[in-house]
Amino acid sequence: ETPEQLAAFEARIAAGEKIEPGDWMPAAYRKQLIRMISQHAHSEVVGMLPEGAWITRAPNLHRKMILIAKVQDEAGHGQYLYHAAETLGTTREEMLDALLTGKAKYSSIFNYPTLTWADIGMIGWLVDGAAIKNQTMLAGCSYGPYSRAMVRICSEETFHHKQGKEMVVAYAREGTPEQKKMAQDALDRWWWPAVQMLGPSDQDSPNTPQLMKWGIKLKTNDEIRQEFINEHAPELMEAGLTIPDPDMYQDASGNWVHGPIDWDEFFRVIKGHGQMNRARLEARNKAHDEGAWVREALNAYEAKQHGQAAD
Ligand code: BYC
């Protein structure tokens, strides 16, 4: 890497140009993107598990169809993102191996259990709501394939967000006392993990400076967190729900200021010690093992197409 190459690359980013797969890029830019995009892909795939667990228990056909479509969308997002990461020179096998052996990270949020049906609505409202804030920013990122994947993913997540909000508001405002209680209980359990999922606070975010320098991230974790809270806090309160943060208040500039975040819990979860980390990895490994015959069949078909004998 010469200083001239780096200067030309940074000038392209400063001019708002997208970097495309065959273009010259610093090794650290490539490495950061592979890290982020593969973690993002893993999050989409692992994120199917907590919601998928409720497909057979949806309260009616209408909500069941929506949930099936949502979980299927997450699989599609995983596909686009693995493809986007592959454009940087990594392989699907390498990425899956890192996930299945527990080396790769995926979003902390999916290490919490879905205990009631209201959790499905709360995930749509809060988790997709947080994801949209982060991904709308990433849609403007400097790497072309990632930025374009984000545009499509965000439009699908907007639908996920709306259905979650509609469901929780229906239970919280017009529901039976049991439904109201179920909605509040879901908020009590998902609020803080949703606030945490946007990443550690800026002073503990080692990757942010480099990512911002190269236009991969356009805002910091705390900035996105504030946007998420500013949108969701008033809407949750309007639905008659109580945010489990007794210290929260609105400051003179209109920001909803949150109380202390339990970062010890966050770091425990991302190190693999959350409630569901082990179960999530077991479920992904089981699905991978049970899909071995599909991969073998694909290889045999491919060999036949090329006139070779399959073994
Ligand atoms: N969980 O320096 P930092 C979805 C790690 S899924 C686990 O701030 P960065 C959906 C971080 O990786 C949405 N780990 O990192 C799917 C780093 O560790 P390494 C998923 C986390 O990259 C199904 C360390 O902590 N979205 O929408 O500057 C159903 C230090 O952090 C987390 C994405 O993946 C976390 N929450 O910023 C419904 C978006 N946060 O890698 C919905 C793409 C941080 O150095 N990713 N860590 O060992 C990003 O935008 C950024 O990577 C983050 C973190 C904002 C997440």
UniProtKB/TrEMBL annotation:
<dbReference type="InterPro" id="IPR011881">
    <property type="entry name" value="PaaA"/>
</dbReference>
<protein>
    <submittedName>
        <fullName>1,2-phenylacetyl-CoA epoxidase subunit PaaA</fullName>
    </submittedName>
</protein>
<dbReference type="InterPro" id="IPR009078">
    <property type="entry name" value="Ferritin-like_SF"/>
</dbReference>
<dbReference type="Pfam" id="PF05138">
    <property type="entry name" value="PaaA_PaaC"/>
</dbReference>
<dbReference type="InterPro" id="IPR007814">
    <property type="entry name" value="PaaA_PaaC"/>
</dbReference>
<dbReference type="InterPro" id="IPR052703">
    <property type="entry name" value="Aromatic_CoA_ox/epox"/>
</dbReference>
<dbReference type="InterPro" id="IPR012347">
    <property type="entry name" value="Ferritin-like"/>
</dbReference>
